[in-house]
Amino acid sequence: MARVWVSSLETQMVVLSGKTSFTNKVFNFKWAELDALIKGFWLVQLLNIDKVIFETDCASVANCFKHHKEDITILGHCIKEARKMLDFFVLDDVKW
């Protein structure tokens, strides 16, 4: 199970999104955390919140978002694409 915390900076509202799903794919923990983080992006966009802090349990995924490291792996490419979703927000941060 991967979780993502979403904290609104405007309303002090905290939303916890937890998801457990079964798939025929083999995921490692980084992929599961990235998937939960992307679902958090979608949730916040749906709620029309533009100032948020996203928290994840995976330091390596959070660091890739924060430091914009170039990563030539498939996971790195997916993180780069997911980072584009952050353009929707006025103020955002990804922490672990």
Automatic annotation (TrEMBL):
GO molecular function: nucleic acid binding; RNA-DNA hybrid ribonuclease activity
A matching Pfam family: RVT_3
Domain RNase H type-1, first and last residues per copy: 14-89
InterPro entries: RNaseH_domain
Protein name (record): RNase H type-1 domain-containing protein
Organism the protein comes from: Gossypium aridum (American cotton)
